[in-house]
Amino acid sequence: MAKERFDKLLTPFGEKLDKSCPLxxxxxxxxxxDSYINLNGEWDYAILPKKDELKEYQGKIVVPFSPECIxxxxxxxxxxxxxxxxxxxxxxxxxxxxxxVLLHFGAVDYIAKVMVNGKEVIxxxxxxxxxxxxxxxxxxxxxxxxxLEVTDPSDTYGQAKGKQKIKRGGIFYTxxxxxxxxxxxxxxxxxxxxxxxxTPDIDSDTLNVKVNVSGELSGGKVVAKDGEVVIAEGExxxxxxxxxxxxxxxxxxxxxxxxxxxxxCGDDKxxxxxxxxxxxxxxxDKGKPRIMLNNKPYFHNGLLDQGYWxxxxxTPPSDEAMxxxxxxxxxxxFNMLRKHIKIEPLRWYxxxxxxxxxxxxxxxxxGMGANKxxxxxxxxxxIKAKDSWYSLCGRQDKVCRDEYYVDAERTMKTLYNTVSLxxxxxxxxxxxxxxxxxxxxxxxxxxxxxxxxHASGWIDQGGGDFLSLHIYFRPVTIPSEDSLxxxxxxSEFGGYSxxxxxxxxxxxxxxxxxxxxxxxxxxxxxxxxxxxxILPIIDKGLSATVYTQLTDVEDEINGLLTYDxxxxxVDLEKIRELNAKLQY
Length: 584
Hints:
3 domains, TIM Barrel, alpha+beta, single chain, Jelly Rolls, 15% helix, 584 residues, globular, Immunoglobulin-like, 30% strand
């Protein structure tokens, strides 16, 4: 067997990386304080077998890039039998501490033991979620030492892992480990605002704000602004305020209007923002089930977005890089991205909010050891089956099934306030799907404001708001109606592949659902697919499309952009004209 050959592809954004402080922007746009110290940059690191004692560090790693990726400066894999060690020092500015000092991590994959000056401050489990520790009591005057010990089972365990696989290839990608989102510090009063939950309601013209606090706080105030103009304000009672609004603009991809929000409680104050919009499922004037935006039928025309970068893997090289992906989506005429089995840094969602791109958010898949023959037959022949057959679904481990719900709640808590987030996807295909009807009920208890695609493209259990289809190997058709009255969505299709010389990761193998050898033939086939198969079925009830995919990723060369973001494979003007036709 010929050995695979790989090309190191840098994005234009990675080429300009400032190793001393990458991704310096404030990482949490919907809960902003004036206090902020960014800890990204060069740290000491070591990768050692678990049985070995750490005696010295092996070199420098650029945080927040995983050691497996190019931009980290390391390019070494952390195996399940390894420990990844980090170290850096910091000195707080005089007067920084106003009561407590909090140390934040955007995400660390998978188990992170965090120590400050040798004192353990937190051990966190879960590779996709922000967490923080109160490190006040561990601090000393002058220089402080921050260290981490990270372990990651990758795909040898049933935890949430996305598309990471030690034996990468095809639709699965190189695994990554450790810190992969911004590390930062802030100082807060002794009693402080821990989180806020923002719920717009255009039917009642109100904005509800719930405030969770740490310590003893009561009362407080919420102020909504349009620029410098106060448009509503209210007092917090039992940690909650409902503001009455009038004359506001509705948020939509065509008009991504955002308003500022200020929340004060005791000595603490945070800044945020919101948009007035409503997501639901309903019927059009012909009685067809449709996705609704602001109580009107709205066609979701989007792309599958894996969120991978050729040089940063899970981590975008810069804020500019995140903006580019969102803006090029708009320039091509799409109005939605399906964030596929990954949770992005919060600034990515902020850019979708302010630029006007709808987001479908997948939960992160877990499980292992699913029966490939069983699941293949289900997909190919559309066989009905129960997703409570845990062994066949790769969900034998109850600990990991329970952890799914922990992660599901974390996902919703982390992203609930995202204005552009229109739909939850708890399961994708056969990747760890189990008890999806129970998952729907779990989601509804936490969030009643968004529809749910309960089983995207696989074992439909008759739940959620959609009949969700993945169609790759046959012409695209849809049933005249769903027997349960749900909205019909094409949540994956296409996947046409074409290589662009000099911009391909795997020089030996490639993956796609239908291959073309030139950009001209690829572009022609893409337009033919939409003109002949998609446009004719919109009137028949199709309410959304998710083309696979935004960018190439490793072996997959089925993106509209190359993996390094240097080539757009389609004619922008032609694809905009085509996308303008995809509406009711």
